[in-house]
Amino acid sequence: MLRIDKKTFKHDYIEKFREMHGKDLSEGTDNNRYEALGSLIRDYVVEKWIRTNKCYNRTGEKQVYYFSMEFLLGRLLGNTLLNLGIRDTCKEGLNELGIDLETLEDLEQDQGLGNGGLGRLAACFLDSMASLNIPGHGCGIRYKYGFFEQKIINGSQVEAPDNWLRDGNVWEIKKPDKAQIVKFGGEVRVESLNGELKFTHMNYDPVLAVPYDIPVAGYENNVVNTLRLWSAEPVNNEFDFSSFNRGDYLKAIEYKNSVEAISQVLYPDDSLYEGKRLRLKQQYFFVSAGLQSIIKHHKKQGIDIRNLDEKMAIHINDTHPVLAIPELMRILMDEEGIGWDDAWRITINTISYTNHTILAEALEKWPIDMFKKLLPRIYMIVEEINRRFCEDLWNRYIGQWDKISKMAIISDGYVKMAHLAVVGSHSVNGVAKLHTEILKKQEMANFYYMYPHKFNNKTNGITHRRWLIKSNPELTNLLKETIGRSWIKHPTDMENFERFAEDKAVQQKLYEIKRNNKIHLANIIAEQQGITINPDSIFDVQVKRIHAYKRQTLNCLRIMELYNRLTENPDLNIVPRTFIFAGKAAPGYYLAKKTIELITAVGDKINNDKRIKDKLKVVFLENYRVSLAESIIPAAELSEQISTTTKEASGTSNMKFMMNGAITIATLDGANIEIRDEVGDDNIVIFGLTEREVLDYYQKGGYSAWNTCQGDERIKRVTNDLINGCYSYDREKFKTIYEHLLTYNDEFFVLKDFDSYLKAQDRVDSLYRDFSKWQSMSIINIAHSGIFSSDRTIQEYATGIWGSGYLYKNL
Length: 811
Ligand code: 26V
What we know:
By secondary structure, this protein is α/β, with parallel strands linked by helices. Helix content is 48%, strand content 15%. The protein starts with 5 loop residues before the first helix and ends in a 9-residue tail after the last helix.
């Protein structure tokens, strides 16, 4: 915890402001004030950062490196203040200077270097590693443009670049002296020297990888870990003017552009793999730079390279950083002179891998030709890993050629990244129980049979510091008043809150807190979208990436059905509802973009129909991002987790919602199952096909969307409404959605689950009418959310995978 009193803080702040802006505080803009505050807090953090690093070097503690293409951090100011334990002091100090802390916090640009769940998980993990005293650091890419900014224009998504670095970034420190060279292309010369093969990479295109370090402060424990993000620069920063003739000049510019392209932009897809060469380049770029710098660091500490696996663990977030496996082999063999067997032992012991999806279309594989040309030495190593692996398979599965070619790392003209990840690591984990079971029994059954010891489950989690303490201060206070503070460091202690489930005073207080959060969100909605919503309606929320398997369409069709009932009978007795959606569609994902158009069209019609007396409102909030989620989630009452069973690996917003007291309506998919197990069937609303039923339909067929539609008048009507001009004069507008459901037999069982979903929604309506029942459900959900803190998840990774104990000492 940082010991700083209000007086010192005020003094430091005023000084910092003058030094940065060359004027007095009273003359500055809010932006000036934010910059000065961020910069001052960074200075405070740097002290602890230096001390933490010294401590790590002194103790020789095992270091964990979390490699990820994405870190979706959001804003840093508020959470850093919270973790340093100085948020209240700063707030009061600023107040006395006539400055509102929250106003400044709101000025910070989100750091949006991720697509969704996978990237946000990496950010939660960084927070938990630092807070649990684990020496764990992030390694990724400093994209110049993060996840695109979404605008809704005439009801459709329009993408704009996210120029998040425009006004600088107070949190990063550039470290040019730690830059590394990454080599692309060229060829490999193989020589035999004294009976040993020597590999020399020649005629390659060098790229300079320059690191930017971001401090990650733990919660009141003096630990500051590092997130290192790499930026690509040409090797000779500017092109070489000495050879200034036309040809060279253009070549030099071309080289500069092609190098800078590497860290230019985050790929905005998260479920459709495309074999884009630039993405492969990005992957090798940060993995190679990261590994080189880590190994140099460890060597500097005097560590015997043969014991590297005792001193570091490298975790790969999905297959995106899987080139860490051959790259580590390359460094150990070609640069450190270690033989294959030792290098392989070190590599396997060092690397562990998390799988985040079973969607076949998201599995990465690279065309051999592309791979070989771009990374010739790495390809040779992958080929050798594959040769040895296949030899092993031949001995085990004599004559079973089909099985062998299915499992091979290189086959059918591709390098299969998930296979490389399983073969080259000591641990493979899924992110929720069901997901891990599906990996073991279906998607990776052959590998599980061969390496059962590698497979394990680590159910995801979320940091309760951002998703409860920071974003829901009133609920945090209620918890402190009722059960004390132990849950802050030991989140499962939130279970003590269950004792208050039937306590009328606590129920009332909880209701008031939720209502305040709803009003806060209603104000944002009024400001952003110009829509007035009723704070006494049920806030029914689905916010996440727009994807067919997440079934925003199912949600939308039931709104259309309810609207039909209401127009026929405006006196229908329902609790008024506000349906809130937000989420981005991948720019090339036509069906997802059409889904947004449908939601906004349904909203336009319903919100302006006087007949239904404001009983329903539909809102699509633009530009979903971490900071917006922090306003939406504390205000939610119903959490929509309605993916097709088996398709959502875990989900993490489900955990954030329950922690903030929302009731979940869900299929038994991903971590919804664990949530159900925690709160019991009475405190969650479950519907839909079971895992078995879904798998049977996929394997054996037998589902007819058309017949399901014909057998249900409500479905007939709402699907018809997609093409009869009800929601658009242009009858073609939603035809793709209609066809996906009816012509192409509804891949994600939207119509099959429709009836069950409607019944579940009716249950929600009647539960909500019972004030005391609803509040007690809400209390039970909050009380059981502690287990979904990423602190629990990270403890499991640390003890079960990384073998890194805790440093329970104060730095
Ligand atoms: C895949 C691809 C495919 C190629 C284009 C770029 C790209 C970027 C990311 C991904 C990975 C998507 C996988 C993912 O985000 N999975 C989500 O992971 C969450 C954290 O484990 C989990 O809660 C969600 O259920 C799962 O969908």
